[in-house]
TrEMBL record:
Main location: membrane
Keyword Membrane: yes
Taxonomic superkingdom: Bacteria
UniProt organism field: Muriicola marianensis
Signal peptide feature range: none
Pfam family, one: DUF423
Identification of the protein by name: Membrane protein
Length: 128
């Protein structure tokens, strides 16, 4: 599990830099300002959570269900949140908005919130 979290974190970071460069250069002429801002939001959240996964991967043993659920929440949440935004922006720019992705973004956001809540709980559990 440790290696999976580290690999996914590194992959998310790599792709965030790649997609960020694409958004800043190649897509600047294709996307509207609103679409570009949304795309950048996806990139930022992907990078933040890629870094977080690397930190968790180097600091946790994933010996408990809590740590495992936390990691899966962050990985799946980032995938659903950021990549659904990319799909929505790119499909809308091409005139065929993939509306089925609309509900996927908040689902990803909920999983990210769940991951953060589990992380918070893990800290509080050690205090109490």
């Amino acid at each position: 599990m440790i290696l999976l979290v580290q690999v996914v974190g590194a992959l998310f970071g790599f792709l965030a830099v790649l997609f960020g460069a694409m958004g800043a250069h190649a897509l600047k002429k294709t996307l509207s300002q609103d679409q570009l801002r949304s795309f950048e939001t996806g990139v930022k959240y992907q990078m933040y959570h890629g870094i977080l996964l690397l930190i968790l991967g180097f600091n946790l043993g994933f010996n408990t269900g809590l740590e495992t659920y936390m990691a899966y929440s962050f990985m799946l949440g980032t995938l659903l949140f950021s990549f659904s935004i990319y799909g929505l922006c790119l499909s809308e720019a091409r005139g065929r908005k993939w509306r089925f992705l609309g509900p996927v973004t908040p689902l990803g956001g909920l999983l990210l919130l769940a991951g953060w809540a589990l992380l918070f709980y893990s800290f509080i559990a050690h205090i109490v």
